[in-house]
């Protein structure tokens, strides 16, 4: 495969950006591929190579790239201007759709990214409860603000340490680390610190440690603990929202969070973040309350229009074939991984999946860390050369869209089997 133009652009990009990229996970060795066009389930790079895409922009493009209905609606909106700096009716239209999908979203606030939304939700939780501590799960990803960049310390349940330079130690002392799917450990943490905990924040399905589903009763247990101790339960549904149906994940799982965070799909491919919940809690947000949240581009008409067009289309779309296709891919890849490579598993939930070579079961963060991430990247690069674009990291997530046909999936599975045969010793 000829990728000379990508290499040239990477050399140029390296003069402008740290390691040539605008976000760390976009970099991989020897150099990232520069894309020029996307449509449906496909990407085309600057050298003219075509790829079946399972990264889907890291998740927003559930309808497929460049959905014609979304593009048409956005283009029509752009004719009236790009930004007003005032309220617009499109904000109301998108809020109506969100409330229709999950009536617990009595009030919402729009912002510009999942990072912003989680940052604001944590601040709101502290303002509402008048408490300082937050609980996050080890390996849970909630963006790139200081409080989200805290990992576990040396113990299983402990105050956290920063996983990034530039985050003060004092920040880590306000973040407690628990383990996903370890309800007993979380109970112990609440017994020790419950009256100081403002919120527990977690993804309902881990999407940034591969794909890890919650054990039965885990989310319900968090809900009960938060209710018992007067803490807020914050569910980060940036990835899971509208991934399983025209709904939040919690709505389908019959679990109610106090605050819900959305992004990715609800922006239809344009920047967006959303946090929301009951009117009682949300009225703490400025200007009606004292928790300050603002942004020049928050609720901008272009992101709103893309979100409205996307959710309107999803509202009338049957998810059954998408979910069935995802399970089919999971089964095919897991059989191939075990038969050819010898050991591995494939986790899937909704319309997302991830390949874990070298391990038989992944239900916790530590399980995921035990996978063979080096082999995953070898597989990624081999498939890249054969026109299949997986998520560019072991702990990212692969996504299916409504644009992926069974023929796409069969072709990708065949190429994956071929790659495994070439990479695995006889």
Architecture overview:
An eight-stranded mixed beta sheet has the order 4-13-12-11-10-5-9-7, sandwiched between helices. The protein has a four-stranded mixed beta sheet with strand order 1-2-3-16. The chain has a three-stranded antiparallel beta sheet with strand order 14-15-17. The chain has 14 helices and 17 strands. It folds into two domains: 169 residues, Aspartate Aminotransferase, domain 1, CATH 3.90.1150; 248 residues, Aspartate Aminotransferase, domain 2 (3-Layer(aba) Sandwich). It is of the alpha/beta class and 426 residues long. The chain is globular and about 60 Å long.
- Order of strands side by side in the largest beta sheet? 4-13-12-11-10-5-9-7
CATH topology of the largest domain: Aspartate Aminotransferase, domain 2
Gap between N and C termini, in Å? 26 Å
**Share of β-strand residues:** 15-25%
Number of helices: 14
Q: Strand pairing plus helix content: what structural class?
A: alpha/beta
Beta strands, count: 17
Q: For the CA atoms, what is the radius of gyration?
A: 21 Å
Helix content: 25-40%
Major sheet: 8 strands, mixed
Brief digest:
The chain is of the alpha/beta class and 426 residues long. It contains 14 helices and 17 strands.
């Amino acid at each position: 495969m000829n990728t000379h133009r990508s290499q040239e652009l990477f050399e140029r990009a390296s003069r402008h950006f740290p390691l040539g990229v605008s976000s760390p996970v976009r970099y991989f060795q020897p150099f990232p591929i520069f894309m020029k066009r996307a449509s449906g389930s496909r990407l085309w790079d600057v050298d003219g190579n075509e790829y079946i895409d399972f990264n889907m922009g890291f998740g927003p493009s559930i309808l497929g790239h460049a959905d014609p209905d979304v593009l048409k609606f956005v283009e029509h909106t752009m004719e009236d201007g790009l930004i007003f700096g005032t309220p617009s009716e499109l904000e109301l239209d998108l809020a109506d759709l969100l409330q229709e999908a999950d009536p617990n979203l009595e009030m919402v606030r729009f912002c510009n990214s999942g990072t912003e939304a989680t940052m604001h939700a944590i601040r709101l939780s502290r303002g509402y409860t008048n408490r300082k501590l937050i609980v996050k799960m080890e390996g849970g990803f909630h963006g790139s603000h200081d409080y989200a960049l805290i990992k576990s310390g040396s113990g299983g349940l402990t105050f956290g340490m920063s996983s990034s330079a530039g985050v003060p130690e004092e920040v880590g002392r306000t973040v407690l680390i628990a383990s996903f799917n370890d309800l007993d450990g979380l109970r112990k943490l609440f017994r020790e610190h419950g009256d100081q905990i403002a919120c527990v924040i977690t993804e309902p399905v881990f999407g940034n440690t591969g794909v890890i589903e919650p054990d039965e009763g885990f989310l319900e247990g968090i809900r009960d603990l938060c209710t018992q101790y007067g803490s807020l339960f914050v569910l980060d549904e940036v990835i899971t929202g509208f991934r399983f149906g025209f709904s939040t994940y919690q709505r389908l799982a019959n679990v109610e969070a106090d605050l819900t965070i959305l992004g990715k799909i609800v922006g239809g491919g344009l920047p967006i973040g959303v946090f929301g919940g009951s009117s009682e809690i949300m009225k703490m947000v400025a200007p009606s309350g004292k928790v300050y949240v603002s942004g020049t581009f928050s609720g901008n008409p272009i992101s709103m229009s893309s979100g409205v067009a996307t959710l309107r289309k999803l509202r009338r779309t049957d998810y059954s074939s998408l979910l069935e296709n995802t399970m089919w891919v999971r089964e095919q890849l897991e059989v191939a991984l075990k038969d050819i490579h010898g050991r591995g598993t494939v986790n899937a939930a909704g319309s997302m999946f991830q390949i874990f070579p070298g391990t038989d079961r992944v239900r916790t963060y530590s399980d995921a860390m035990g996978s063979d991430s080096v082999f995953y990247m070898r597989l990624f690069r081999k498939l890249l050369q054969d026109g299949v674009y997986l998520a560019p990291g072991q702990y990212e997530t692969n996504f299916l869209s409504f644009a992926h046909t069974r023929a796409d999936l069969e072709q990708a599975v065949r190429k994956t089997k071929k790659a495994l045969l070439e990479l695995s010793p006889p």
